[in-house]
Amino acid sequence: MAKPRRNVKFAHRSSLNTSSDFGGSRRDSLSGDDNSPLSPLRNGVTVDGADSHTGSGSPVLKVLPPTETKQRQNVKTSNLLTRAKTPPQEEPPPLSEYEKKKQTFITRTIWTLVMIGTFFWAMAAGHLYIVALVSAVQVITFKEVIAIANVPSREKKLQFTKSLNWYFLAATMYFLYGESVIYYFKHIVLVDALLLPLATHHRFISFILYMMGFVFFVASLKKGHYKFQFTQFAWTHMVLYLVVVQSHFIMNNVFEGMIWFFLPVSLVVTNDIFAYICGITFGRTQLIKISPKKTVEGFLGAWVCTVILGLFMTNLLMRYKYFICPVKDLGSNAFTGLECIPNPVFLKQEHEFPFWMQPVFGKILLVEPMQFHILAMATFASLIAPFGGFFASGLKRTFKIKDFGDLVPGHGGITDRMDCQFIMGFFAYMYYHSFIAVHSHATVGGILETAITSLSPEEQLEVVERLGRYLVGQGIVSDKARLPWTSTTLEAEH
Length: 494
Fold this sequence. Notes:
Mean pLDDT: 78
Structural class: mainly alpha
Radius of gyration: 39 Å
Strand content: under 5%
Strand order of the largest sheet: 1-2
């Protein structure tokens, strides 16, 4: 009978099912004592897995040499000391509701100042920079709104839906921007040999571009997805109308004079600020269910404040020709200034009070007509333009999203800040051309357009010759300064 080995104790049964990896994969004992019966190492004896020679699943006991046993015990002791010295990492406590609101307020304030600074920098830099800013806002807004409905197209693996959206945007912008440039800069476009064909056939080219997109859309229809694709087609065109077309009119306001761009934007911002202030101060009655935080008191209080501030801003801006003059040169800025004959709406005129107001205010009032027009614009900005924001709120609720994007920290997307601006800019354009614009019977650009598109080259030369004779006869130019086309030249050519 074999002699039993001394100083050998078998490990606890539960430890037999554990791994023999001493690199740290084995679960440590609760006490961290190597003499614990659960310890993988005790008195130089380890428990290994199945015997590879016998193939049995029984654990095999190994007696380690004293040197290796001491090394492993030292490693174990070192690991335990390291864990004891390392303090446990505590998670930071969650922010309170007050801290969250404070952090949000700081973020919103910082980015509000950034946006205001960018806006005023663009205004001082010139009309071209404002046009670029409007274009960037237009493209980003289109992207944010279109992205809401693009998610299902990726799920359905429809490849060309997104590409078609951007193509229709490019074709629409080409048409609208071209219309504006041709209308306001005829005197430049129509005398350039390269731009003249594009200007003459602009609408036909735009139509061909749109039809190419239309044909490609029909060719890309996929069986089983017809309803979804036609819905996307309609959604894209709705966004083009509500965003791109209305942005086009805002850009036209810039060309008519900086005041027609700055005032509508300022009125909407002013109304938004005072609606918030008046609402949290004495708001009690809910205004509309789709925006539960809007109150009747805030709505009406903002109207009064917007009218007052609008009168003040108008009286200030009318003093500077940079704001009231139409732009003829896109290279102009706040430092070069502009020169023009002011629109009569900016000049003081006599207005007679109704007889029942004369005992209080007198018979005659000397005031600029623009002071009356700003009342209408401020009223629209306060009572009608906010419904553009309500429309956007309903759209977000439909798609169950909080914001249209996260481009501006603390504010959401560009669309969240521009939802009222589009409809206000559209109104300002229509109001200006209906009640304020001075429609002259003839302009240099209009005469050039008629001469170039309606007269033959021989007739155009005759117009130049006769105009030269008129200028010499009136003493406006000398005979030597006349253009080289003379009646003799014309007769020889005929």
